[in-house]
Each structure stands twice: as structure tokens, then as C-alpha cells.
Amino acid sequence: MNRADVLDDLRARPAVGASVIDLGAERDVAALATATLLPLDRELEQPVAASKGRLASFAAFAADVAELAKVRVALLVLFTTLAGFVLATGFLGAAVDGMRLCITLAGTGLVAASAAAINQVIERRRDALMERTRDRPLPAGRRSPQLAVTGALVAFALGMSVLWLGTNRLAAAIAALSWASYAFIYTPLKTRTHLSTVVGAVPGALPPLIGWTAAGAILEGPAWSLFGILFFWQLPHFLAIAWLYREDYARGGYPLLTVTDPSGGAPARQALLNTLALLLASLIPAWTGDAGPGYLPAALVLGSLFLASVAWLAATGSRRAARGTILASVAYLPLLLLALVLNGPSP
């Protein structure tokens, strides 16, 4: 019964000593109806408010989990893993096994998310000193390191089990190597030497090999070409990020090349040299005959455009140029791998 029904019911009852309800009685009836239904309204509102609160809490938790897993980085890892799997399948002369591919991506994604969370646990105090990272779940205090470590270990165990049981031992071993070298070699080295960038490029270049071996192929020439492309791509990409946020990295106590050489000369040289090396590495599949005729012009055009963006950054050292180089690098890699996949062998 709603408020209007109660009011009508009370009005319909015969009044004592009067044939109609006067204005004062009208107010009494309204007050009685309000007093009757107000507790009921509150009882109905409480579950709704509680439900909204639980939903908001879950959304905040999911957002923090995504931040700990570095979802955007993980998506790039999965794309390179996908490229390795599809290319290997073509070299084997087989059709893509959709279920095996999904298993590979699921396992690799879990391992990558675990490594990202471990990285943030180790760096949480330095992250609190940097503007771009201080609002992450751990430095901001929204989640505990214990929770992050527990989640990371569970994700690692699940990811390794998926790869070990669903693909093969070699793919699982490469994933474990990537996880361990990123979390426990590269991450601690970041506070000690600018060469950590080179070291960190190794685990970053392993995902396509996970995909390659998960498809059942052996590690041979084309697989190592993929590794070389990923390795050299990371160096100018990260140097552009490090240049854009060099003051922030200095506050965090990271002796990156952009921090130890604020003039920008050494970072510019390294970015240019590694981009040239990337351009040469990207031509290897065409030179060895592992890619079709459409790949070579695509690799030359994409590599030249990326090199031009790095040269712009080296010449000006501006924040705009750094952002341009970052965007160019993010566009370059998927487009190059797509060109390689489209021009690779097919069953």
C-alpha cells in the first residue's frame, strides 16, 4: 500500500462528530500517513543504497586490479604473442588452432599481469614520489602490498599451469624466464644503472617467442627476427618516455640516461642508433625470404617514419617531440607485425 492509498483509506472512514474531514483533520491524516509509510520507505531505500555501495566498491577494486596488472602494457604483450603464434602456425603449414591460441593468450596474460604487480610492489615507495605514479593503488594506500603479492603469485601459478598443460613446456619456460627477469632483475636494476633499460628489453622481447613455441614451432630464424624487432623497438620507445618524464624519474631516484645526462645528448644518440638497428632488424624477414613481397615496402615506410620522429626528438628535445615519438612507436609496432603476418606463409 502506498502513501496515496493510506490517505484515501483514512479519508473514507467515518469521522466521529462530523460528516466531513475539516482542514485540521486533513493535516492529521497526512501526518498519520507519513508516519505510517516513512519507515517502510527507509526500509526499501536501504537495500538499494547498499547495492549501489557494493557496486561502486567492486568497480573501484576492479579498476585497481587493472592498474596493478598494467592492462595497456598487457594488451601489447598479448598482441606480440598473437603475432608469434600466427606466424609460427603459417611456417608449420597448419591452420590456426583457435582453442590453443586462446589458452596461450590467457596464460601469457596472467603471467604478464603477475610480473607487473610484483614490479609495483617493489617500486611502491619510489612511485609515491613521482607524480605520474603516486595515485597507483599501492602508493596511494588503496590496496596493501600483501594483497598485491598474493594476487600476483596466484596469477603466476594459474598462468604457468595454463601454458604448461595447455601448450608445451618450452612456452611455459619462456614465460617463466620473462616473468623472473622482469620482476627480479630488471626492476631492481632500475635504481642502480641506466643499463637497466637494455636489460629490461629482454623480457619485453620474449612474448612473441611464447606464442611461437606455443604453436608447436621450434626456435629458429624467423622467431629470433621477432625477438630482435621487439628488443630494439623498446629502447627508443622507453627513452622517449624517460625524456618526457625525466624530472619525475629524478624525483623517484632512478638513474636513467635521461636523468644522468640532462643535456639529452646521450639519450638522443642511443635512441637514434637503436631505431636504426630496429629498421635493419625489421628488414631481415624480407632478406631471408620469410616474408612476402608486400612486407619490404611496409617495413621501409614504417621504419623511416619512426626514425623521422626519433630524429625530431633528438634535434629539438621538446616535450611535444617526445609525445610524438611515443605515439609513433605505439603505432609502428602493431602495424609492422600486421604487415609481417599478412605477408607471412599461409597453410
Alpha plus pi helix count? 15
Euclidean distance between termini CA atoms: 70 Å
Rounded mean pLDDT score: 90
Spans of 5+ residues with little confidence (pLDDT < 50)?
14-21
Tally of distinct domains = 3
How many beta strands in the DSSP annotation?
0
Major sheet description: none
Helix content: over 70%
Rg, Å, rounded: 30 Å
Query: What structural class do you assign from the helix and strand content?
Result: mainly alpha
The ordered string of helix (H) and strand (E) elements is: HHHHHHHHHHHHHHH
Shape: globular
- Portion of residues in beta strands equals under 5%
Overview of this protein structure:
The chain has 15 helices and no strands. It is mainly α and 347 residues long. Helix 13 runs antiparallel to helix 14. Mean pLDDT is 90; it is low at 14-21.
